[in-house]
Amino acid sequence: MQLDTLLARAGARLQAGGSSSPRRDAEVLLCHVLKVERSWLYTWGDREAGPWQRARFEALVAARAQGQPVAYLTGEREFWGLGLATGPSTLIPRPDTETLVEAALALAGATEGALLDLGTGTGAIALAFASERPGWQAMGVDISQEAVELAQYNARRLEIANVVFLQSDWLDALEAKPRHRQRFDLIVANPPYIAESDPHLTQGDVRFEPRSALVSGDDGFFDLEYLISEARRYLKEGGWLLLEHGFAQGERLGQAIEAAGYDAVETLADLAGRPRVTRGCWPGP
Ligand code: GLN
């Protein structure tokens, strides 16, 4: 069967399965099986798929039709132009989070400094930042040892050397290990911030992602508020805390950051104009 025909059938099947991007999903899965770029498919769509390729592709399409995220099926997702290995122990990096990377880079004018990424998952934020600021040192921590190994693997594969990853429940390991007891110029996080009862959790890819990376108490603020308080002991004077959050959380979060003693509190919008990142500058105790 021709690749074009395979794709058309898979697209129809995925549409019926409820995917919001059926054609794109089918193309990404076929590229993964054939080990080619998407542009290759547009030129060579009249080629025949081999029997093994077809079987492998159809198995992936079937899993996708059951709702499995494409990034878990291919084991990869692009973020900030970096191909990152992904897996079910981490949140799948989202384009939205590039807003947080941009906000961190905008504050990182100096040629050197130290950044800490809390709840790093695949390492997406720390790696994107470190790749843009070779003179800085980045550290990413995650409560999941599997996530830490994935992030370390990504750093090796991308040959990004100015980043380290370690297992830690938020800042606990830094507290315990004196050699990690340092202060940072920037502390960033894309923590869990969804409310337990949010209907968003029962739809699409998020059903397959770790709940611990998504859900934070009754109202979604539990971890955000914890980080606002704890980060103060790890920021240099004049250092910045930057937190990603949900569309409707900016105002309350800004107030909480101000109440905790930070200055210059500001909420920044994502590419779609929605408030998604709030930052505050730590003036010192
Ligand atoms: N923005 C993500 C979502 O809506 C959630 C990410 C998070 O909780 N940190 O699925």
From TrEMBL:
Coiled coil: none annotated. SUPFAM superfamilies: S-adenosyl-L-methionine-dependent methyltransferases. Keywords: Methyltransferase, S-adenosyl-L-methionine, Transferase. It comes from the Bacteria. One of its GO terms (molecular function) is peptide chain release factor N(5)-glutamine methyltransferase activity. The keyword DNA damage does not apply. Residues 114-246 form the Methyltransferase domain. Substrate binds at N190, P191, P192, Y193. It holds the Pfam family Methyltransf_31. InterPro entries: DNA_methylase_N6_adenine_CS, HemK-like, Methyltranfer_dom, N5-glutamine_MTase, PrmC_N, RF_methyltr_PrmC, SAM-dependent_MTases_sf. Residues 6-75 form the Release factor glutamine methyltransferase N-terminal domain. S-adenosyl-L-methionine binds at G119, T120, G121, T122, G123, D142, W170, N190. It catalyses: L-glutaminyl-[peptide chain release factor] + S-adenosyl-L-methionine = N(5)-methyl-L-glutaminyl-[peptide chain release factor] + S-adenosyl-L-homocysteine + H(+). Its EC number is 2.1.1.297. Belongs to the protein N5-glutamine methyltransferase family. PrmC subfamily. Methylates the class 1 translation termination release factors RF1/PrfA and RF2/PrfB on the glutamine residue of the universally conserved GGQ motif. This is Release factor glutamine methyltransferase. It comes from Pistricoccus aurantiacus. The gene is prmC.
